[in-house]
Amino acid sequence: MTTRRETAAAMVEAARAWLDLLSDEQRAIGQGPMPADDAGDAERRRWFYTPTDHGGLTMHQQRPAQQRAAMRLVATGLSEAGYVTVTTTMGLENVLDRTEGFVARFDRERGRDPGLYYLRVFGEPGDDGAWGWRFGGHHVSLNNLVVDGALVSTTPCFMGADPAVSPLLGGAVLRPLARVEDLARELVRSLPAELARRAVLLAKAPSDLVTANRTTVSDGDRVIPLAGIWRGRFRDDAEQARLQAASDAIDEAAGFTDGDHRVVEYTSAPKGVPGSDLDAGQRELLRALLATYFDRVPDSASPLTTYDDEALDGVHVAWCGSLTPGEPHYYRVQGPRLLVEWDNTQRDANHAHSVWRDPQADFGLDVLARHRAAHH
Question: For position 169, what pLDDT does the model report?
């Protein structure tokens, strides 16, 4: 087992190595201001999971040696399985491009582009003070904060897959997030009728993650239409119109009424069934499901070991939509300092999103506030 300080030290070394390879022009794009708990930190807290500008230096803007150094930094913030999943997701851009007929643009030269993943370091990597880094692109968003030589935050942590299921030779299939989906379905299907009625909030699913890419989550948060989860409006009016049409079609397919949105909106009081009502086998399924989120990061940063029986009692599970594989569905896992969301609804339920968040302290804002109080 490594420690958070050892993980942070690996991040410092990798970040410095990457920055040292950059030209002045590249560094001006690839490095931002030091993390803080004030308005000057707003850009670090912007995150996306759509194919938009995530902010930072893209892989296209780097030479091969710089790309390798960038991916070495990314690897320090992930477990081996997490790294494989992220790089597979990046490669899926080529698969998705073929699926769509190589026509998607999104107001850029190539809409589905495995080179449009962005890396930015915030502050100066070192053992003192605060610094962090962000890596993101379509269906990937990793956000890491180091304070005084220790890794203190890894959320929001987003991974998606489109297609969620792809064919491989010999009849095999590629499902990067298979267990993230299947364990939750297995858990809810195992519930007796009375618990199932409490766990399944609606027979239909929202079109996307309910909390979307908000910097902070708040009571009453509802699904943001697809067109709203981008960094600004497209310059090309025709492309903007196509995005809006796609967004409207997704919302229409979901068929949500105001009452439906009210049922699934985010509330700080968790919805669904608590772990305290589950039997031993169901609790193990819940713990295994949590592992598909927590094990994305190095073991030093994973909170999984803190989820003993008492902690698991307060973790709630809620589901929306069909329990039949291949049909649209959504789930939420929520507890103290924990929010997990999953949806697989778009593209005939072959387009998956998953995120792990800390509603009280995403981006390490709690630690930054304490750090400022102690040093100023």
Answer: 98
